[in-house]
Each structure stands twice: as C-alpha cells, then as structure tokens.
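Hey, why these numbers?
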Amino acid sequence: MIIDTTEVQAINSFSRLESLKEVYGIIWVLIPIFTPVLGITIGVLVIVWLEREISAGIQQRIGPEYAGPLGILQALADGTKLLFKENLLPSRGDTRLFSIGPSIAVISILLSYLVIPFGYRLVLADLSIGVFLWIAISSIAPVGLLMSGYGSNNKYSFLGGLRAAAQSISYEIPLTLCVLSISLRVIR
C-alpha cells in the first residue's frame, strides 16, 4: 500500500484542524471564567484609585500621581510591594499557626468559587447543595484570622485577630440569613 504526498498532507492538515478545534474549545471554556474576573479586578482598581483621589481632595493633599498616568497603577505598585516584602515571623510565637492562619483564610475564599456557575454547563463542582456549601466554606475564613492573631503570641495582635474574626462573622450572619430565607422559600 503506497500513500502519496497529497494524502499525507491531507492527514496532516486534518490533524492540525482537530488540534485547532481543541484549542478553540479550551479558549471558549476559559472566556466565561476570565471575563468576570477581569471585570471585577478592573472595577476594584478603579474604586481604589477613586478612593485615593477623593481622600486626597478631602485632606487637601496631592493624591497618587507618580505610578502611571494619573496614578492609575498605584494599586498594582502596592500589591507588588506587598509580594516582595520580607516575611517576618514572631520569635516567641507559634510560627506554624502564624503561617497557616492566612492560608486557611485565603484557601476558604478560593474554594467558595467551586459552586459558582461560570456558564450554562460550566460549573467546577455541580452540587445540589451549592449555596449551603458556599456558606459553610466561606465561614472557615474567621478561623484563619483567629489562628494568625493567636500564633503571634502578642496580646494586641490577638485582639486584632479577634476583631477581624468578629467583623467577618458579623457580615456572614445577615448574609447567611438572607440566603437561607430565599433558599427555604424556593424549596417549598
């Protein structure tokens, strides 16, 4: 059986076409996820910039103006500075609790994205108890705040952790009651 060069070229072009279809499929799956994330990120950057400009106007001082045009990139500069800061651990505290606490807080928030539908058939974890799982996972964050405050072995840091956890819980209770009341109404 002899295969000529035109058949080989047709097979190669068909395999390229199939791989392009796979790439396009992956891109179209990722677009509904990254569109709201990009929109929220840009919205937060604009709100931070407006807050700094309005605060500077109220306090009669110069606002952020050196990082990019009109200080638009100031929030990105602050985030970069935060990433490259030296990681200080308390000498007399529990370093494991101090390090694991913020991780628990961030991981619980990131895990709550599992039940959010990003498209018609694009849900990372399709559960029938999605709202209740979202409430349960997001209520773990105050534990991380409390752990990092306690792990520093400093009474003021511990009070700050208690305050942050109490504030987080005080936001979660009304949110949970609203969500549960709507859920119970829909169940009937």
Q: What stands out?
A: DSSP finds six helices and no strands in the chain. The radius of gyration is 25 Å. The chain has a mean pLDDT of 78.
